[in-house]
Amino acid sequence: MATRIECIFFSEFHPTLGPKITYQVPEEYISRELFDTVQVYIITKPELQNKLITVTAMDKKLIGCPVCIEHKKYSRNALLFNLGFVCDAQTNTCALEPIVKKLSGYLTTLELESGFISKEESKHKLIPIMSTLLEDLNATGACTLPIDDANTIHLKLIQLRKDPPIVQEYDVPVFTHCKDLYIKSQWDLTTQQILPYIDGFRHIQKISAEADVELNLVRIAVQNLLYYGVVTLVSIFQYSNVYCTTPKVQSLIDDKSIQEECLGYVTKHGQKRASLRDVFQLYCGLSPGTTVRDLCSRYSQQLHRVDERRLIQFGLMKSLIRRLQKYPVKVIRDERSRPPRLYTGCHSYDEICCKTGISYKELDERLENDPNIVVCWK
Amino acid sequence: MYSHPQNNVYRSGDKTSPISVILVSSGSRGNKLLFRFPFQRAAECPSSLSGKKRNPYALNTTGEVLEDQDGDSRFSDIILATILATKSDMCGKKFELKIDNVRFVGHPTFLQHSPIIQANADPSVISCMHNLSRRIAIALQHEERRCQYLTREAKLMLAVQDEITTVSLILMSVGGCPQSPFRQILPKCKLARDLKEAYDSLCTTGVVRLHINNWLEVSFCLPHKIHRIGGNYIPPEALERSLKAISRPYHALLLLESEKALLSQLPLDCSPAMVRLIKTCSAVKNLQQLAQDADLALLQIFQIAAHLVYWGKAIIIYPLCENNVYMLSPHANISLYSPLAEQFSQQFSGHNLPSMLAKFSLPVSLAEFRSPLEALAQEAQLIQMVVWMLQHRLLIQLHTYVCLLIPPGEDEPGLKEEELPLAARVGGRSLSTPSALSFGSPTSSDDMTLTSPSMENSSAELVAGGDSPLNKRMTETLLTSLSEHERQVILSIPAAQSPEDLRMFARLLHYFRGHHHLEEIMYNENMRRSQLKTLFDKFRSVLVVTNHEDPVISIFQSPMD
């Protein structure tokens, strides 16, 4: 949801009139009534100064940071002011908070350096500044304004995103959009080094080995890419993998845009575009107990024009299918033996193989013949 | 005089728990903080400070705010009273104030009570807290009008505060530590204890039940706390969707606690319909049958079921029967050391959870567990175990969905991709509830007796048998939503030569969009599973079949998706 600023106001404590709004852009936005109700949160007691205060009243949200500068030269020995924003009460204003804080810092500095606010002539310059701020922040989310010869303000609205999940060494990063869209030089050096190795098939451990970057650095770099939505994570591809459909697979039928994207993505290079029916049949052919290998032999006709690896990749990225992982659990054990470390039901085959270096097949052989171990698929 | 109860909510890392509860009043005596819980940490006494060794490397960071510091201990009682005692024109509406990383939410009225929440808490948590605040406010308002309850409690609180302040002053003058007056208020004031209880409940179970003045009940639940799977709370949109999912009569209500436990939790004046429903509820009975057995209207059943779901006391499933296919839920905790494993072995001695769960690694129907050698008792135990696993969200049920997809023609390959698939073209006929349906034994859903074709929407109006012009025309009408090419392909299928098969296919056409599972079609159209399966097989060249969980109720198993 866009954070729209309805009004920017500059409020101060006038030596005779008390708290008032000196300037507001657009004019007359904050009514007398509204200001009366919230003024205790705008020009505040000392305990609340320098804190970001957001108050909701009369369907509006006011965000400000009250500043107090003490000095003998001011009447009443202190200058109290607050530059704040007004938004609609429903708006999520988290992104505006750092801006308000920064602005209060700028104004404080300006006042301390050159008496910007206490002098009438320079204070008046606030009006065009506030107008520009309002316009630019609403239009582009960013604003750069020179205040005077020496000072320039740089502000930007940063949208907070959800925390990304932890990236494991057996996860596979894949670009959500064409990788050429990203300007490589904008990323940090580590990310630049691993970018060429992200192909939707190499897992983190492999990327670390091939790009010669320490494992944890790769994990952090990929987690960063994940945060910005540049990549998403899928699981390691093997022909022995088992997948099954999710209810979202129906979106391939219902949603034209996903259809288009899918058919474009999974068609083999140089072939005529795959048909929806073939692709849908292939996805529906994935079920518990069926490996990708089985799928390939059963649906060889449908796979003429379809790249099965990209089919699986797309299906995972869009959650049309999900991977069924195997989890070994040691249910019977000798009282004297050590408790199981990896066979607890918390670690999948992918993870165990990655950590111990043994292959899937080897692990299978070991566990299949062990009567004390059951394997759960989920 | 009016008071403003305010609750502050914040706990580092836990965005759904309150930080504290505060009661503030504003009136002729000025603004006063009546009560707060937890008590503010007592200010450092000068004598205790000198006892500590000074760390030579410690910076004096008086201006800094530590991230994990208790949010409101920075606020003194006095400042809280000032900022939270709002003006009269803010009364009757939601009050929200955010200071740095602490958020105050309240409902100023002639009595105000508000929770404070961590600043970046979900807006739905904030509105829930506000809801609680308002409820308490309404109860207090009522009691105030009736017997000046709040005035009395406030007087008590202020009296204790004054007393303690005097004592503290004396103590401080002899080098002792100031005490918190709120600790003393607790044993004397019922309202203070209620507020403390509200705070404690919110932080732990998320269910608040208070009796204001031992008379009026205020009950409230924070869905974010009750509906948790793993470490995450179910987002309220998911909860809303789950409530909307209670609309199909062929679903069943599964209680998450035993009947006895549930009944004991109900208030004395609860509706008898609720009691009847809880007593007649069963995992094998669908909501339609439940309505009949409990002698309630279906709509009422939906409403009571929604209530139970909201309070985390029940979930919606498909009724248990031997043809149900279950599989391990992707979110199931299958760890050897999970508390669930412990509970399972206690309840079902001789069995361990991981082994049981391993049996559901591949989709398996309950019928497959049956063996002629097994005693009935064992079968009953199996059902109990399945019910237990469903209650603990370990299993999901898979259903069969069917989609019509005609292979593209050779002569017009390009065009086919541009045309919208059937799903988008066929306007769904409204599938309203049949008025009466009888079911066979719950353990085999195939054994359904066919009712007379009196159902509104059933396509049974097509006269059975015969190739009458009426039937033919109806079949044609039903197939008009298809393109010429599609119609031709269907008609060229060998099975289409049989008029009955074609008729059945045409009448069920609108289900073949991938959104209606087999059991739903069976319920609505009064057909046997075998009939449908045979039909699907006959027309398999134009149908694509897949199995997955029912998205309508999968919200109960995997709320994070």
UniProtKB/TrEMBL annotation, chain A:
Top-level taxonomic group: Eukaryota
Example GO BP: cellular response to amino acid starvation
GO cellular component: GATOR1 complex; vacuolar membrane
Molecular function per GO: GTPase activator activity
Pfam families, alphabetized: NPR2
Cited InterPro entries: NPR2-like
Protein family membership: Belongs to the NPR2 family.
Record-given protein name: GATOR1 complex subunit
Organism: Nothobranchius furzeri (Turquoise killifish)
Automatic annotation (TrEMBL), chain B:
Domain GATOR1 complex protein NPRL3 C-terminal HTH stretches: 483-544
Position of the signal peptide: none
One Pfam family per UniProt: NPR3
Subcellular location: Lysosome
Biased segments, Polar residues type: 430-460
Region (Disordered): 430-469
Organism domain of life: Eukaryota
One record GO biological process: cellular response to amino acid starvation
Sorted UniProt keywords: Lysosome, Signal
InterPro entries with a match to the protein in the record: Galactose-bd-like_sf, HTH_NPRL3, Npr3
Gene Ontology cellular component terms for the protein in this record: GATOR1 complex; lysosome
Known function: As a component of the GATOR1 complex functions as an inhibitor of the amino acid-sensing branch of the TORC1 pathway.
Family indicated by similarity: Belongs to the NPR3 family.
Protein name: GATOR complex protein NPRL3
Organism from which the protein derives: Nothobranchius furzeri (Turquoise killifish)
